Amino acid sequence: MTNRLRAEILEEEEIEKELIVEEKPPAGKLPENFFTLLLQKGVVSTEAATRMLPFLFFVAFLGMIYIANRHMAENNIRDIDKLSKQVKELTWDYKTTKAELSYRSTLTEVEKKTDTLGLKTSVEPPQKLTITEDEH
Question: Based on the structure, what is the number of domains in the chain?
Answer without folding.
Answer: 1
